[in-house]
C-alpha cells in the first residue's frame, strides 16, 4: 500500500481517537490529513481534494451523514467511509445504497479499515492530487496542470469514465482545454494503444466534412482520383474526437447518428458499408439544449453523444491555476523561443491572476509567449504583461466587495425565480421574512422590482398587508 501514497482525510470531533487513528494509518503508509468537524472537513476539501474521506457518524454540529451527503452532491466520485456505532447500522446501509463507499462498525479491526481504504484509493474516482499520487497513476493526465479542487474532481470523473466505452461530451468555453482533456481520456482508456484522431467540425466546409469523417470511394466526386479513408477508419480501435460538434451541419448529424447506432459507415460514393470500432468523444462551447430548441441540433444525436458530460471551468473560475500554468508555459516555451526569463515578478503575476481571461488557457499561453519573445531579463516585468494584455488589468475585489456582490446577485436570483414573492424567496434562502427584508434593504432591492405589472413601489407593502 505504501506505493500508492494517497491522502486520507480523517474527520472526528474526538481529538484522542483522531490522533490514534492518524498514527495507525500513517504507520501503514498513508498520507493523513485531519479535521475535527464536518465543517472543517469541507473547508479542507475545498483547498485540496483527498483520495478518500473517513468520517465518524456522530459529531457535534454537522453529522458524518450530513458530510457524506454534501460530498455526494458536489463530488460523487470521492470515496467516503463512515465509522458508525452498532445502533446506526441501518442508516449506514441506506447511505451505501446512495453511494457511500463503505462503513465499519465500532469497535472495528484496523486491518478491515486498511483493506477498505486500499479498495477506495484503487478506484479511478479517488483521483488524489498530482503531487501525492504515483507517477504511473497520473501518467494519463500529465499534460493537465492544476491545483484546483474543482479540476481534481473533474479529473476524478474523467478517470472513471475513461475505463468505459461510454460516449463523452466535453463542454466548456473556447480555449479552456477541451482537446487536452479528450487526449487525457484516450490515454486513460483501454484504447490508448490505438490512435486518437481529431477533427474540428466548425473548421471544414460541409461538402468536405463528410469525406473527412467517413471517407470516399474513387471517383465519388470531381478530384477523387483515389479512395480515401475517413477518420472513422483511420481511428479504428481508438478514439474519434469531434471538436465543436455543435457546429456540425444537420445533414451530417443524421449520418453521424446512424454511425453511432449501427457501428458502420458508408464512404461517399461507395455501395458497401464498413464496420467501425471507435469511441466517440465530442466537445462544444455551445449550449446544445438551446441549439436543440432552435432546431439547430438533433435531440436524438445529443443523447447518443451525451452519455457522460464533463464540464471544464473557465480559467477565471480556477484562478489558483494561473501561476502554475504561466510558469509551466514559460518552461515549455524555452525550446521554441530560447529566452532568459525564469519567472514573473510579483507584480506581473498579480496582473495575470487578476485578469478576466475571456480566451481562457489559450489566451494565457499567447500572453506568456509574447512575454517570452520580448523579455530581456530573468523575471518577466509587469509592463510586458500589460502590453500583452493590451489593457490595465482590473484588481481582484476585496473579500467584502466579493461578499457584497455575491449576496446581491443571490437575492436578485431568488426574487427572479419567485417573481418577487418574499415569503417564497425567504423560504428558499432558509431565512425568516424579517431577516430577508433586512437583506433586501441592505442591498437596495424591493420585491416590486421583480413583479410583472402592478405598483413597483407599493407591491412589497401589498404583500405585507395580504399576509398580515
TrEMBL record:
Q: Biological process GO annotation list?
A: phosphorelay signal transduction system; regulation of DNA-templated transcription
Recorded superkingdom: Bacteria
Q: Where is this region: Disordered?
A: 447-468
Residue numbers of 4-aspartylphosphate PTMs: 56
Please state every residue range assigned to the domain named Sigma-54 factor interaction: 144-373
Stored Gene3D superfamilies: 1.10.8.60, 3.40.50.2300, Homeodomain-like, P-loop containing nucleotide triphosphate hydrolases
Species in which this protein is naturally found: Marinobacterium lutimaris
Annotated GO molecular function terms are: ATP binding
Q: Does the keyword Transferase apply?
A: no
Q: Quote the protein name from its UniProt record.
A: Two-component system, NtrC family, response regulator GlrR
Q: Which UniProt keyword terms apply here?
A: ATP-binding, Nucleotide-binding, Phosphoprotein, Transcription, Transcription regulation, Two-component regulatory system
Q: Which residues form the Response regulatory domain?
A: 7-121
One protein family per Pfam: Response_reg
